[in-house]
Predict the 3D structure of the following.
Amino acid sequence: MECEVRLLLDLKVKKSSILLAVYLFSMFLPGYFSSPIMQMVSNIMMVGVAIYLFSVKYKPSRFMILTICYFAYLIAITFIYHNKAADIHLIISNLKIIFMLCAIEYLLKRTPNSTINIMFFILITFVIIDFASIVLFPNGLYQTEQIWNEWSSSQEAQWIYGNKNNRVYWYAVLSIITWLRYVFNNKSKVMVLITSGISIVAMMLVKSSTATIVAILVSVGVFYLTYKKQTNINMNSYGILVIYGCITVLILLGSTSLLKPFVEGVLHKDMTFTGRSTAWERVLLLIASKPVFGWGVVDGETATGLLKSIAFVNPHNQLLDCLWQGGIILVFILSLIMITIASNITKIPNRSKRTGIQFVWIGLLIDMIFEVLLGTGATWIWLLLINHLYEFVYEREVS
């Protein structure tokens, strides 16, 4: 009888692993390989994952509840305003991210070893392919036309993960997963260094200054997590949020004199932040007209019209994008998510481990100043892993 029960449990575990593997493969698949068939597969897998989570009576964490609220509000306000983007595709694309995160959260608690291995092998496959495309085709695997205005345009290099700014979050998630694989499966520490090194080199080769800084910070973080036993660094997680907020406000208001040495010397950007300041100024006017509820999700054509520039489809700043799309309400939800993460980081008892995950988090926050990231599933996985590190690792060690 006991043997039969064990066989049934093993079968369920294998079924969930196969379901997760196929689903994550379809969700992690770079746009370069995207096809209608793979879109259909990911839609079917989403339904399968939803049924599975319902059958096991999955209970979302506070982080996941807030994340669901974030997406639900965005979808609701978009439909209330009858935007062009208000269609079934908006609902499905957001639901796929939600169910992916729920599945990862549940299975990392239940079967961490196999879940981490699934994520690792899928991610490292695509990252290696992307890195090879960068090395073999330094000027781009292919080119797309970047239109700046009615009179000028330029060619933009593209690789497997797209343009130079579209890959750092996938590489960062791989670095974190590689470290978790070392913790749970007792794999080699060297692989942590290899994936981190590849991340830095890739960002340097595509000449993305912001992504390079992010990759370095994430690499420093996983180095602390893997190798450092002690550290004199003692950062306050809530303080990190406050500093991030202050720096973002200073940049958006144009009070950048104090930041000039860092911006020009380290990030190698001019003080218009590669033209982003123009988009920031215009989107601030749009936010002022609907400050509480926001505009909802807007499609690319509508966005270029509202921003009065065919070069921008978003404001290239996550906080501004949240204010534009969801107003103060969406920013409030995002603030609760970040506070939840800060609270869980603070619980980590080991100072060097806490410092390591803070570096990983700071990398994400810096990228959010110059890019819009929260429409990408990889960014939410990044946040999920940072938030649950205490529960996944340290509570497990105590138990």
